[in-house]
From TrEMBL, chain A:
The keyword Kinase does not apply. Residues 20-254 form the ABC transporter domain. This is ABC-type quaternary amine transporter. PANTHER family: OSMOPROTECTANT IMPORT ATP-BINDING PROTEIN OSMV. SUPFAM superfamilies: CBS-domain pair, P-loop containing nucleoside triphosphate hydrolases. It comes from Sinosporangium album. Pfam families: ABC_tran. Gene3D superfamilies: P-loop containing nucleotide triphosphate hydrolases (3.40.50.300). Its EC number is 7.6.2.9. Residues 383-411 are annotated as: Disordered. Coiled coil: none annotated. InterPro entries: AAA+_ATPase (IPR003593), ABC_transporter-like_ATP-bd (IPR003439), ABC_transporter-like_CS (IPR017871), CBS_dom_sf (IPR046342), P-loop_NTPase (IPR027417). SMART domains: AAA. GO terms for molecular function: ABC-type quaternary ammonium compound transporting activity; ATP binding; ATP hydrolysis activity.
From TrEMBL, chain B:
Keywords: Membrane, Transmembrane, Transmembrane helix, Transport. This is Osmoprotectant transport system permease protein. It is found in: Cell membrane; Membrane. PANTHER family: GLYCINE BETAINE/L-PROLINE TRANSPORT SYSTEM PERMEASE PROTEIN PROW, OSMOPROTECTANT IMPORT PERMEASE PROTEIN OSMW. Residues 23-204 form the ABC transmembrane type-1 domain. It is a multi-pass membrane protein. Its main location: membrane. It comes from Sinosporangium album. Signal peptide: none annotated.
């Protein structure tokens, strides 16, 4: 009867939210190792919660207690208020997607059948399961031609995508991911991360993602939980807050040295834009000189007929006559005016000898120019907002790093 | 004797029906032990995986049996199974095949990568279904490698049975030796070797059909 009760609980859960609650959970292994120590953690529905921490801090153990591959020694884990201990393990697991580092694909089954694993276990008919598997392959960005291959015929990144597709096959509300992208090279890893963010925007699963990589945690997590060795929770926060206000030295150290710069990824580029610092590419040089003089600047952004940026021109030492198009165009960088981060704006400024960043709209058309003075002001404000932090010496070092726009402008 | 040729083709022609029935007898006595051994090794091997403590004693006993001289075993068995009976050969050969196949089954199941087994658990397989549809299929290449060894050695060992009156093609060796007549000996050797090569080829072909995923892995 436990099976039936479990299935009913699972059905009820998919209709509601999918909160996972760790309620004072401790795991003590047979040899006495305490892998997880009195963990209290609420994993909210529809979000990515990242468990991050050094190797051996109990991330995998915590994750596996959710689908009962490991049973807790003390405390309870609740799925929407239902103690997982009351659910028959195989039934519980069929309702929870699981992705691991080596993908764990079945080597003797074709890709399509690998993806259809859980639907088969749930007793779907073969046609329906395979159709569903094909949909998912497409969804995770894999060519349908790969469906009839065997896992060894795929690259590591492709195998990982199959692993994600397999976990999603029966449309489970909850997804557990244990360092799923750690074994692939950095470029592929970034692709997979972007793909996961895109998928999550469509699917809104409750995802628990384990990693030892703080950059990955900050990139993917709606919330980040930092664990320390011994299995205790050091801090849970959204990434921005965590970068701004690490709870203690352990978290600060774990976040790493360029914490200040990385924080800027979460600050929107809310910069005043100047509209008078651009010049059309088909203008006369004399017009450019006039514009520069009236704005008292020595750089102008060149814009083509479609409104797209083409480069910067220096207005010092201009020839007396000719077209702007004939001048030497210098490199530039852009950031998105809606949704771009302060970090992307700073990055754009660092690419240009002018030290200014060109703002573009979603179509790539120039919306204005952010000057280095405005960039400096914005970064200084971020630094001031974080100044409530406990370590003033470090704060000083961080803000020095955080205003490179001016330095670059001189170059 | 000196001018006796290595092969007298006319002898082969005259004795062909007899050679054929020896060959058939040889095949039966070589193949049945492997089939029986496989049927016994599967449950025993799986039990040894499930209860690790079973493994060492099982393999120990099998190795002792394996070390017994085959002729001695045949002779000991005569009172039980009878002189010149197939069973006198098949029973000991089954034990020899077991000594190869039990470790093969255990190694085969051990060849399933831990992450594959764990992801099967995490997907929600129950133990029996996991064994049947994940672990055993992945064990097939290793088990088949054991079956190849067991088959070839079984084919060669059958000949010894000729000394107790039932040795398939082995009879030709005794016959030729007793009469100082090389033709049957040569025919026997050639046929035993051909049989071994054919059986091995058949098993390789079976492996390709059964495990396309593993053939391709080796090629890659
Ligand atoms: N089966 C086990 N028996 C004993 N100790 C274990 C076992 N599994 C993990 N541990 C120990 O528990 C701690 C946490 O392990 P784990 O959860 O795998 O950490 P993480 O995934 O964060 O690297 C480590 O010290 C590890 O050595
Ligand atoms: Mg781990």
């Amino acid at each position: 009867m436990a099976v039936v009760a479990g299935a009913a609980a699972l059905g009820a859960r998919s209709a509601r939210s999918h909160v996972i609650t760790f309620d004072g959970v401790t795991k003590r292994y047979a040899d006495g190792t305490v892998a997880v120590n009195d963990l209290h953690l609420e994993i909210p529905t529809g979000e990515i919660t990242v468990l991050v921490g050094p190797s051996g801090c109990g991330k995998t153990t915590s994750l596996r207690m959710v689908n009962r591959m490991i049973d807790a020694s003390e405390g309870k884990i609740l799925l929407d208020g239902v103690d997982v201990q009351t659910i028959d393990p195989p039934t519980l697991r069929r309702g929870i997607g699981y992705v691991i580092q080596q993908a764990g694909l079945f080597p003797h089954r074709k890709i399509v059948d690998n993806v259809a694993t859980v639907p088969y276990l749930l007793g779907w008919d073969k046609r329906k399961a395979r159709t569903r598997a094909m949909e998912l392959l497409e969804r995770v960005g894999l060519d349908a031609g790969l469906a009839e291959r065997y896992p060894f015929q795929l690259s590591g990144g492709q195998q990982q995508r199959v692993g994600v597709a397999r976990a999603l096959a029966a449309d489970p509300p909850v997804l557990l991911m244990d360092e799923p992208f750690s074994a692939v090279d950095p470029v592929v890893r970034a692709d997979l991360q972007d793909e996961l963010i895109r998928l999550q925007n469509e699917l809104n699963k409750t995802i628990v993602f384990v990693t030892h990589d703080i950059d990955e945690a900050v990139k993917l997590g709606d919330r980040v939980a930092v664990l320390r060795v011994g299995g205790t929770l050091a801090q849970v926060d959204d990434p921005e807050t965590m970068l701004a206000r690490p709870a203690d030295d352990f978290v600060r150290e774990f976040l790493g040295g360029d914490r200040g710069i990385r924080r800027l990824s979460f600050v929107p580029a809310d910069l005043p834009l100047r509209g008078d610092l651009t010049v059309p590419i088909d203008a006369e040089v004399s017009e450019a000189a006039g514009a520069a003089a009236s704005s008292a600047v020595s750089w102008l952004a060149v814009v083509d007929g479609e409104g797209r940026p083409r480069g910067w021109v220096s207005t010092e030492g201009l020839p007396p006559a000719g077209k702007v198009a004939d001048l030497r165009l210098l490199p530039y960088g852009t950031f998105e005016v809606n949704g771009g981060s302060l970090r992307s704006a700073l990055d754009a400024a660092l690419l240009a000898p002018s030290g200014c960043a060109i703002a573009v709209d979603a179509d790539g058309k120039v919306a204005g120019v952010a000057t280095r003075e405005e960039l400096a002001r914005a970064t200084a404000k971020v630094a001031a907002d974080g100044a409530a932090q406990p370590a003033p010496a470090e704060q000083a070092a961080q803000s020095e790093q955080a205003v490179p726009a001016e330095g670059a402008g001189r170059g | 004797m000196d001018e006796e040729p290595l092969i007298r083709w006319d002898w082969i022609g005259r004795n062909w029906p007899n050679i054929q029935s020896l060959l058939a007898d040889h095949v039966v006595m070589a193949v049945l032990p492997v089939v029986f051994a496989l049927l016994i090794a599967l449950p025993l091997g799986l039990a040894s995986v499930r209860w690790r403590w079973l493994y060492q004693p099982t393999v120990g006993v099998m190795n002792v049996v394996y070390s017994l001289p085959s002729l001695a075993v045949f002779i000991v068995l005569i009172p039980v199974t009878g002189l010149a009976e197939r069973a006198t050969v098949i029973v000991p050969l089954t034990f020899y095949a077991l000594a190869v196949l039990i470790p093969a089954v255990v190694d085969g199941v051990a060849s399933v990568p831990a992450h594959v087994r764990q992801s099967a658990v995490a997907m929600g397989f129950r133990p029996l279904r996991r064994l049947v549809s994940v672990e055993l299929p992945i064990a097939v290449p290793v088990v088949l490698a054991g079956v190849r060894v067991a088959t070839v050695s079984s084919i060669s060992l059958v000949s010894v049975g000729a000394l107790v009156g039932r040795g398939g093609l082995g009879y030709l060796f005794i016959d030729g030796w007793q009469r100082q007549f090389p033709t049957p000996i040569v025919v026997g050797i050639v046929l035993v070797v051909l049989l071994a090569v054919a059986a091995d080829g058949l098993l390789v072909a079976a492996q390709r059909v059964l495990t396309p995923w593993s053939r391709a892995r080796r090629a890659a």
